[in-house]
Design goal:
Layout lengths: L5 E6 L2 E6 L10 H16 L5 E6 L4 E3 L12 H20 L5 E5 L2 E3 L1 H8 L2 E5 L3 E3 L13 H9 L1 H10 L2 E3 H7 L4 E3 L4 H12 L4 H13 L7 H12 L3 H11 L10
Helix pairs in contact: 1-2, 2-3, 3-4, 4-5, 8-9
Length: 260
């Protein structure tokens, strides 16, 4: 598939998505959100892709925010629809993929950019990255899940302060908050992230997908995460990956998982 605003590639089981609007600091517009959805969906359905990495083109920005020019004149109804459609199409969609998604955050991750990074299963950042949710400085609030995911990751008090001050934090602060897992030099960002992806790929894709589902269940209203864990644990027993994994362990050999 050909895209206008993103680049995609696959290598050794890793699918990479690069947001490619450097002149706009990779800002998210409606067209880019749709293309990202399509790319994530295609990788998730590709059995050869075991891990997805998303990053931004250039050294300045992962995603510097949403494209404000698209919605500056929206009505109340249009604003609500923009948030609802974006969350369903991209941010919630990414969070609930069965394929692990790692955000390789290079440069600015602001507003919708940080919200996209937070929707990924975890984050690695370059040492020059800056992160924040500056929406209140524009007279609006984060609308792509930022008010929900940031408190989940860093705690209510820190999220309140970050959102209300519209400030930015550096990556060492982000790491101390638990917002990112690792901080590395920008020149090493992708290789380091691919190294983590390689470790993930040694394990059962089916089990990883079930684990993602169980972990996410704890953060959904009306869902008992423990019950989801029990159900998903049981489902694993009926899979080829479980039979292969346990057989390989007993035979003292490396497992060869097929993701089924």
């Amino acid at each position: 598939m050909t895209y206008e605003n993103i680049l995609t590639s696959t290598e050794n089981g890793i699918g990479q998505i690069t947001i490619n609007r450097p002149s706009k600091l990779n800002a998210l517009n409606v067209a880019t959100i749709q293309e990202l959805h399509d790319a994530f969906d295609a990788f998730d359905k590709n059995s050869e892709v075991k891990v997805i990495i998303i990053t931004g083109e250039g050294e300045k920005a992962f995603v510097a925010g949403a494209d404000i020019s698209e919605f500056a004149n929206f009505s109340i109804e249009e604003g609500a629809q923009l948030a609802a459609q974006g969350q369903e199409l991209l941010f919630d969609f990414v969070e609930n993929l069965k394929t692990p998604v790692i955000a390789a955050v290079n440069g600015f991750a602001l507003g919708g950019g940080l919200e996209l990074a937070m929707s990924c299963h975890f984050r690695v950042a370059s040492d020059n990255a800056k992160m924040g949710l500056p929406e209140v400085s524009l007279g609006v609030i984060p609308g792509y899940g930022g008010t929900q995911r940031l408190p989940q990751l860093v705690g209510k008090g820190r999220a309140m302060e970050l959102i209300m001050t519209a400030g930015m934090i550096d990556t060492e602060t982000a790491k101390s908050y638990g917002l990112v897992n690792h901080v590395v030099p920008q020149t090493e960002l992708l290789e380091f992230t691919k190294g983590i992806a390689s470790k993930i790929m040694r394990n059962s894709p089916m089990a990883i997908g079930k684990a993602i589902s169980a972990i996410n269940a704890n953060y959904k209203d009306g869902v008992n995460g423990f019950e989801t864990e029990i159900k998903n644990f049981g489902k694993c027993f009926g899979t080829e990956d479980f039979r292969e994994g346990t057989t390989a362990f007993l035979e003292k050999r490396k497992a060869d998982f097929n993701g089924k």
